[in-house]
């Protein structure tokens, strides 16, 4: 992918005045007659757009893990709007929209070196939060069914509901065991009726992002408790991975023994599987090995795949189980009029394997960007992002004014993926470090907390990254923020 510096806006954020001005121009009520399309266009371009931040357009927006939009993805997204397909029912004689979705998901599996045949439940969601929700819904169905089976019963939560199902399975509770999980895991736990409190940290004291395997086993072994193990791949504050290969294999053994489900949240970790097999990436490869032992996987295409919002990825190994959970029942008008053609893969109607009925044609931007740039394009893009992140980490470590976090990363920059967590050593500066950095409007970082004190965080996730150009800006801004 060529870097087009002409599209890099000089300022990442609008000024406070520009935001206030844009906000003041929003209409308060619906106009009786409408202002007309021409005037609406002017209103959007001249009044509203100046109040937006340029997070997809700029390479120097390092907030959250925002991603960007590649030209091929942005082009396809406009087609999506134009053709306005509703990708919910597989209608092979009317449209190839579901074929495109199926193909886009298979190409994605290729990119991240998973065999699509082993991941029979593949779908696009609105984002990683929705994918985590789907993962917990599948996990819940499985672990209760498995607990029931082990006492000679059959039960389907999807039919009888959680209360009746846990009673039939002889369960007192369901726990979600994790380390440093993304906040959306707790939100999803609330939605699927397990509750936020069901999420329990099973962290090692010396490395909170990793599992304490002995404690994990003792929790999994608790009588009358079913478990979902949620692996953070990678963790959002530090970019560190919860497991390596040997942890993953051990966790799989434990989960098979105790009938637990493994869900991996790889919202942005996913793409590390596309990296070449070289020593500088060996820690990252270890970190994403857990995808091979997972029952279900969350990914985000609007993050490192750099398609426009909103597009998440979900994979699980059991499409039958998914269909039990998500089947949209008794809607004859939503059943394909003709069965699938006898040749080619079986394509599920998306409405029966995911949350939504009507759905945007999210697959087209994914398909477009994957075929436009290919495996090498994506590999190169991620390598540039990692190179920039590691250059920032190195710069921070080598100077006297900032501290790279956490300790484990200080010792070895090869732990750095696309996130760099740090703070200013001077406490007064550190208190408003994020405002100091973002106040330059040359870049944007997000703030967080680490060990009870404020910290700042670069998340590098835009296709336009150019290590040399961007390091010039980063080093200037890091120096300016100390003044
Ligand atoms: C971003 C992120 C999420 C939430 O993703 P959305 O696409 O914003 O819903 C979940 N988990 C991880 C690890 C993330 O980085």
From TrEMBL:
Names of the cofactor(s): pyridoxal 5'-phosphate
BP term (GO), one: carboxylic acid metabolic process
Modified residues (N6-(pyridoxal phosphate)lysine): 303
Keywords: Lyase, Pyridoxal phosphate
UniProt GO MF annotations: carboxy-lyase activity; pyridoxal phosphate binding
InterPro entries, per the entry: Aromatic_deC (IPR010977), PyrdxlP-dep_de-COase (IPR002129), PyrdxlP-dep_Trfase (IPR015424), PyrdxlP-dep_Trfase_major (IPR015421), PyrdxlP-dep_Trfase_small (IPR015422)
Superkingdom in the source lineage: Eukaryota
GO CC term, one of those recorded: cytoplasm
A Pfam family annotated for this UniProt entry: Pyridoxal_deC
Record flagged with keyword S-adenosyl-L-methionine: no
Similarity comment: Belongs to the group II decarboxylase family.
Alphabetical list of PANTHER family matching this protein: DECARBOXYLASE, PUTATIVE (AFU_ORTHOLOGUE AFUA_2G04980)-RELATED, GROUP II PYRIDOXAL-5-PHOSPHATE DECARBOXYLASE
Protein name from the UniProt record: Alpha-methyldopa hypersensitive protein
Organism: Acrodontium crateriforme
């Amino acid at each position: 992918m060529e870097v087009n510096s002409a599209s890099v806006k000089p300022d990442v954020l609008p000024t406070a005045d520009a935001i206030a001005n844009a906000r003041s121009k929003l209409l308060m009520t619906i106009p009786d007659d409408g202002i007309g399309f021409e005037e609406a266009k002017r209103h959007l371009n001249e009044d509203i757009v100046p109040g937006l931040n340029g997070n997809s357009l700029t390479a120097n927006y390092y907030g959250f893990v925002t991603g960007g939009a590649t030209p091929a993805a942005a082009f396809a997204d406009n087609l999506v709007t134009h053709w306005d397909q509703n990708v919910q029912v597989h209608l092979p004689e009317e449209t190839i929209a579901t074929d495109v979705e199926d193909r886009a998901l298979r190409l994605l599996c290729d990119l991240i070196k998973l065999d699509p045949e082993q991941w029979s439940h593949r779908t696009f969601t609105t984002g990683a939060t929705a994918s985590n929700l789907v993962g917990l819904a599948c996990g819940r169905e499985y672990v209760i069914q498995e607990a029931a089976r082990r006492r000679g019963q059959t039960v389907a939560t999807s039919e009888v509901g959680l209360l009746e199902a846990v009673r039939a399975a002889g369960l007192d509770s369901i726990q979600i065991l994790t380390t440093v999980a993304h906040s959306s895991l707790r939100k999803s736990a609330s939605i699927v009726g397990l509750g936020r409190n069901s999420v329990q940290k099973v962290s090692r004291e010396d490395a909170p992002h990793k599992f304490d395997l002995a404690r994990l086993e003792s929790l999994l072994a608790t009588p009358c408790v079913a478990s979902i193990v949620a692996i953070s791949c990678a963790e959002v504050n530090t970019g560190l991975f919860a497991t390596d290969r040997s942890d993953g294999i051990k966790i799989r053994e434990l989960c098979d023994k105790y009938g637990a489900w493994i869900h991996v949240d790889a919202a942005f970790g996913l793409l590390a599987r596309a990296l070449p097999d070289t020593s500088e990436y060996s820690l990252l490869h270890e970190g994403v090995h857990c995808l091979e032992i997972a029952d279900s996987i969350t990914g985000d295409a609007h993050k490192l795949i750099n398609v426009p919002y909103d597009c998440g990825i979900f994979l699980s190994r059991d499409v039958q189980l998914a269909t039990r959970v998500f089947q949209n029942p008794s809607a004859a008008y939503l059943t394909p009029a003709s069965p699938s053609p006898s040749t080619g893969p079986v394509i599920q109607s998306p409405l029966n394997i995911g949350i939504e009925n009507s759905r945007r044609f999210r697959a087209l931007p994914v398909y477009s960007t994957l075929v436009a740039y290919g495996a090498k394009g994506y590999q190169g893009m991620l390598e540039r992002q990692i190179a920039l992140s590691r250059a920032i980490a190195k710069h921070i470590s080598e100077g006297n004014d900032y501290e790279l976090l956490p300790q484990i990363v200080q010792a070895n920059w090869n732990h750095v993926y696309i996130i760099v967590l740090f703070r200013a050593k001077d406490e007064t500066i550190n208190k408003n470090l994020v405002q100091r950095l973002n106040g330059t409007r040359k870049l944007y970082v997000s703030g967080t907390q680490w060990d009870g004190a404020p910290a700042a965080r670069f998340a590098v996730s835009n296709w336009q990254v150019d290590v040399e150009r961007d390091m010039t800006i980063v080093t200037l801004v890091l120096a300016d923020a100390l003044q």
